[in-house]
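Handoff note, outgoing to incoming analyst
You'll be picking up this chain. Sequence as last confirmed:
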Amino acid sequence: MKIRVLAVASVLLGLLAGQASASQALNNAPPVGPIILNLDGTAIPHSYVNYSTTFIATATATNLSFAFRDDPAFLSLDNVSVSTNGGPNLATDPGFEAGTIGSNAPAGWSYLNIFGATFSGVVNSGCGNGGKCYYDGAVQAYDSISEVISTVIGALYTVRFSLQESSSQTTFSALSTNGDVTGTGGNGIPDVLSLPDLGVQWALQKQVTENIAVFYQGFYNGAGVPYFPSDLVSGLGVQWNLSQRLAVYTSYNWSLDGQGSPSGGYSGFAYAY
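Most recent structure output, in case you need it:
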C-alpha cells in the first residue's frame, strides 16, 4: 500500500499541461495512487501550519510518501508523525534531524525523482522546529520521499506534519497554469510587467592587496539567480584579479525577507574586453 501526501505550489492563469519524459520535466502531472491528502486548491501556508489526515491500513507494511512540486519557491516539511490509537510515532527521523545537510534522502527515508526535476528536495538547516527540515522546490515535475512503516491491517492511522512555503502565491495548484511548462516561470505570476522581471544590485568593495579585494553586496533578484527567487539578498565575497582583464569571485549570501532559500553561495568570473 502506498500513501502519498501531495504538496504543490505553481499557481497561474489558464491551464496548459505539457508532456514529460525521464530526461526533461515539462509541467508533469502529480503522482497517482491511493492519495490520502492532496493540497491542490487549498491555501498556501507562509508560516508553519499543522496538517493531519488518516488512512486504514490494508497491509502489514505501508509506504508513506510525500510528493512535492514548487515552481516559484520552496516547501519546508517538518514534524512528520504516524500513529494509531494515541500510540508512539512510527515515522523514522520525523524532524529530519539525523539527516545529512544537502542530502536528497533523509535518514531512514528513500528519495525518488523520476523526471529529473531541478531544485530537488534536500535536508536543510535553519528551518523547522528542531533546526532542520525537508526543503523542496522541484520545478515542473514532482519528486518524493517515502519510508516503509509497519502497520496492522484494519487499524486506523493518523498522519500529521507541519508545512510552510516561501513564495508570495496564495493557492496550491497541481500544475502550472500560465503556459510556462519548462522552468521556474511556471509559478502563477502573471506575464504582465511583474516584479520578477526586476533586478537591482549594489556592492561596497575594499582592496586588500594588489590582486585581492573583499566586498559586501546586496541585490533584489527577479528570479535570475537560482536559489533566490524574487528575493532580497545580502552577502560577503572575495574577488581575485588574475590579470588586468580577468577576475574570479565567490560569495556567500543570506535572504533578508525569507522569500527564497535561507542562504547560498555562488562563484563566477568577469572578463573585460
